[in-house]
Amino acid sequence: MTMLFSIEAYPFRISNKLLTMLGKEVIKSKVKLDSTESVTLCFKDETYSPEAGGFHPVEIRLIKAGDHWEVDYITDFCYVGSGYNAELVKELDFDFSNDYGYHLYSGEHSLIKLAGLYQLWEGNFLSYVAMDVFTVTVHG
């Protein structure tokens, strides 16, 4: 079984490599796709902390659109602060359903203005996935 993705719904290119990887993770999780309208994938580096650093947690939500799936949003989190004051916050948010993006240090933007940043983020994220640094959980 494979997941079919729409690639026309985005203001810039989301790679087939990312979509294929997401589909494989969902299928591997055994979430029942015929009885759900959305799936959320959580990528977590179990050792990530404010003191030691590590790889940022990432959450990706997929939504059903007819007979295919679309990426609803991609959120990359980071710690701000240190010690007991550290807080996990959104650093990057690509909200495809609402056509806006967010960066912790520059605020909200239309997605098209974040195309270059997205491409950089996606390339790095796929490299981290290939390095097997994440524990992946899937919720349907």
Give the structure's gist in a few sentences.
With 140 residues, the protein is α+β, with helices and mostly antiparallel strands.
Relevant terms:
alpha+beta, seven-stranded antiparallel beta sheet, 7 strands, 2 helices
Secondary structure class reads alpha+beta
Number of helices: 2
Question: What percent of residues adopt helix (DSSP H or I)?
Answer: 10-25%
Q: Assign an overall shape.
A: globular
Describe the protein in words:
It is a single chain. The protein is of the alpha+beta class and 140 residues long. The chain is built from 2 helices and 7 strands. Strands 6-5-4-3-2-1-7 form a 7-stranded antiparallel beta sheet, with helices on one face. It is globular. The two termini are 16 Å apart.
Topology:
Blueprint: H1 16-29, E1 38-44, E2 58-65, E3 68-80, E4 87-95, E5 100-103, E6 107-110, H2 115-130, E7 135-139
Antiparallel strand pairs: 1-2, 1-7, 2-3, 3-4, 4-5, 5-6
